[in-house]
């Protein structure tokens, strides 16, 4: 399974067990990207009221999310500077 995540600024591929939509879970605002699948896939969803407690209950989750957000931001910055 591969899925493409697209926004006004960049396009990237997501792989099995990857995730998207974390920004909306964190800030509560509408999603900032669109995801299109190349093939059939199964997804799971998580709502804010179940996500927020996980940040306190799962050690390292907030840091792991932050690291991924930083990686994705740097990729957008690199793409924009080309």
Structure description:
The protein has about 80 residues and is α+β, with helices and mostly antiparallel strands. The chain has one domain (about 5-80). It is built from 3 helices and 3 strands, in the order ββαβαα. Strand 1 (about 5) and strand 2 form a beta hairpin. The longest helix is centred in the last third of the chain and has 20 residues, at about 60-80. The protein is globular and about 40 Å long.
Task: From the structure above, extract its key features.
3-stranded antiparallel sheet
Strands of the widest sheet, in order across it, are 2-1-3
Structural class by secondary-structure content: alpha+beta
Number of strands: 3
Separation of termini? 29 Å
Residue share in β-strands: 5-15%
Structurally, how many domains make up the residues? 1
Radius of gyration: 14 Å
What is the overall silhouette? globular
Mean pLDDT: 82
Helix content: 40-55%
How can the largest sheet be summarized?
3 strands, antiparallel
How many separate helices? 3
- Unreliable spans are none
Order of helices and strands: EEHEHH
Quick description:
This protein is α+β, with helices and mostly antiparallel strands and 82 residues long. Helix content is 44%, strand content 15%. A three-stranded antiparallel beta sheet has the order 2-1-3, with no helix packed on it.
Helix/strand layout:
Elements: E1 3-6, E2 11-14, H1 22-27, E3 34-37, H2 48-57, H3 61-80
Antiparallel strand pairs: 1-2, 1-3
């Amino acid at each position: 399974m591969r899925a493409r995540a697209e926004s006004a600024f960049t396009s990237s591929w997501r792989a099995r067990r990857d995730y998207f939509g974390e920004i909306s879970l964190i800030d509560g605002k509408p999603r900032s990207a669109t995801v299109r699948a190349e093939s059939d896939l199964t997804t799971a969803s998580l709502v804010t009221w179940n996500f927020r407690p996980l940040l306190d209950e799962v050690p390292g989750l907030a840091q792991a999310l932050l690291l991924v957000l930083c990686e994705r931001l740097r990729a957008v910055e690199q793409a924009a500077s080309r």
